[in-house]
Amino acid sequence: MVTHIHAPASSAFALSVAVSPAVTELVDRVRPSVVQVRSEAGGAGTGFIWRSGGAILTNDHVVAHARGRLHVTLTDGRSFPARLAARNPRLDLALLQIEASGLPAAVTADSRDLRVGELVLAIGHPWGQPWVVTAGIVSALGEVPVRDDGTTATYIRSDVRLAPGNSGGPLLNARGEVVGINAMIFGGDLAVAIPSHVASEWLALQPRQRPSLGVDVRRNELPAGNWAGRTHGLLIAGLNASGAAERASLLIGDLLVDANGAPLENPAALRDVLEKHTTGSLRLAIIRGGAALTVEVDLGI
């Protein structure tokens, strides 16, 4: 026997009043990490900021047939030319790169922890309408064939309402974490997303671009003082426009003494620090006008 339980109207209203503000806050928090992907010849889709240094994740089919240059538009209205950094047609994933840093990257969760029945939300640009939000529940988890040889890919099936333009956007759990990348729509009421753990594993295989400080330097003697026995540092002789150093307000003539505690006595030492640096900001000890300063530089990774 199947028992149907109906909540009283007053209970349903109370639940709506309790849940709605939380969902609104979640959407306001996540929306800045969602972007619009367009080509010069028309056609648009969705993507989201994977890394604060300008890495954008979307679907391969959003960019595969794009004619002309790709552009990524942020919620604040800024638009950037985008370079296709990597793609995987089988997984329907593509990684774009824009020249920007300090962007609000989306928070991801391990989609292997997702359960059928969980609340999920999607943010995207259906039919070109910007930053539209829809909600539903996870209805199935499994695998779908992607080639005639029996190769399969894992997927998340949900009943969020999607339309052309949503492709490449994030599927979010109730905490606002990305658990999938919306990819396919069947019959108007079946949405399929690529699990976030599949995307993470693919992205981990991609070559990482070495971060850049955006400076021209030359070896220079340090002024007299207590520099822990160091005699030389790096004099900033040039700054790249909009580079990490310029954004951190470093100046031509500044002397770089160390980076994250590592001495910078020659250009090779700076290259070594940047090669090993994988995330977050870089803490530079500098000398400016004879005074010792500490500067935090966001490398955008």
What would a concise description of this structure say?
By secondary structure, the protein is an alpha+beta fold. The chain has 5 helices and 18 strands.
Topology readout:
Elements: H1 9-30, E1 34-39, E2 44-51, E3 55-58, H2 60-63, E4 70-73, E5 79-88, E6 93-98, E7 119-124, E8 132-145, E9 152-158, E10 170-172, E11 178-186, E12 190-195, H3 196-204, E13 215-221, E14 232-239, H4 244-247, E15 255-259, E16 262-263, H5 267-276, E17 281-288, E18 291-298
Protein architecture, described:
- With 301 residues, the protein is α+β, with helices and mostly antiparallel strands.
- It has helices at 9-30, 60-63, 196-204, 244-247, 267-276, and strands at 34-39, 44-51, 55-58, 70-73, 79-88, 93-98, 119-124, 132-145, 152-158, 170-172, 178-186, 190-195, 215-221, 232-239, 255-259, 262-263, 281-288, 291-298.
- A hairpin with a 2-residue loop joins β15 and β16.
- The N and C termini lie far apart (56 Å).
- Residues 1-18 have low confidence and may be disordered.
Features:
single chain, 301 residues, alpha+beta, six-stranded antiparallel beta barrel, 5 helices, 18 strands, elongated, disordered N terminus
Q: Averaged pLDDT, please?
A: 84
Number of strands: 18
What gyration radius follows from the Cα positions, in whole Å? Answer: 24 Å
Distance N terminus to C terminus? 56 Å
Low-confidence spans: pLDDT under 50, at least 5 residues? Answer: 1-18
Query: How would you sum up the global shape?
Result: elongated
Give the % helix. 10-25%
Oligomer: single chain
